[in-house]
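Sequence dictates fold. Next comes a concrete instance:
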Amino acid sequence: MPEGDTIHYAANRIRPVLAGNVPDAIETPHPRFGRDRWPERLAGRAVEAVDAHGKHLFIRFEGGLVIHSHLRMTGKWRVRDADWETPRNTWLILRHADKLVAQINGPVLELMTSGRTRFDRRLAMLGPDILAPELDEKSFLRRLREDDPTRTIGDALLDQRIIAGIGNLWKAEGCFEAQIDPWRPTGEVSDAEALAIVRVTRPRMQQSARDGMQERFKVVYGLRGENCPRCGELSKIRARGQGDDNRTTYWCPRCQR
C-alpha cells in the first residue's frame, strides 16, 4: 500500500500542474462515474489547492468541491506529458496545458463537498499527519494512550486514527532505528520511546516525499533471515504477520527491546 510519503510526493507533483489553474479537460473513463457528471460539475472551476493528509490526497476546487483519493493497495497517481497514452484502468484524467494528471486503478475516488458533515467527519477521524509542517506530538500521544494498552506498538503505528501516514515499511524501519521491539504492548512503551520512533521516521519520510526515492531507506524491511544490519552475525532478522491485517513485520530480536 502506498504510504504517506508516496501520497505527499504525488501531491507535490500534481500541485504545479493544477493549482491555481482551471483544467482544460476532465475525463472519467471508468464506467462507474458515468452518471456522476464530474466534468460538468467541475467545468470552469479553478483548482485552489492540492494537498495530502496521511494516505489521503485532496484536489480542492472553487466552490468547495473536493476530489478525494485513497489508493489502498492498487492505485497510482501519474503526472505525464499530455500525449501520454493512459492505461485502460485509468479512472480520472485532468488535463492542463502540456500535462495530464491521471489516477489509475484507485479503489477510493470520490467527489465531495468540503464543510459538509461526512467530509469533516472523515478528516476528524484521522490522527495527526506525520508529514505535516509541524507534527502534533501531543495529539499523537493522546490518541495512542486512548487506545488499547495491550495492542502492540507496531500495530498501533499502522492505525491512521492514531498517526496518519505510517505504513508497514515505515513501521518496521522506525521501530528498528529507534531500537524498539514492535511486539511490545503500547502500555509498556514510554512516551519518550513512542516519540523516538516517530522522530526518526519523520525526516526520512519527508525526504522521500520530496524526491520519491523511498527504496533507499529500506534497512531492515524485507531482510527475513539475513544478518541484522546493526548486530551483524550475532542476530538474524525475523519476520511474521502482525495485527488484524497480518502485515509482515521485520525486526531484530537482539537489538530491539
Notes: Residues 191-211 form the longest helix (21 residues). The helical segments are 4-18, 38-42, 117-125, 137-146, 153-157, 168-178, 191-211. The chain has two domains: 4-125, 137-251. The domain at 4-125 is CATH 3.20.190.10 (N-terminal domain of MutM-like DNA repair proteins).
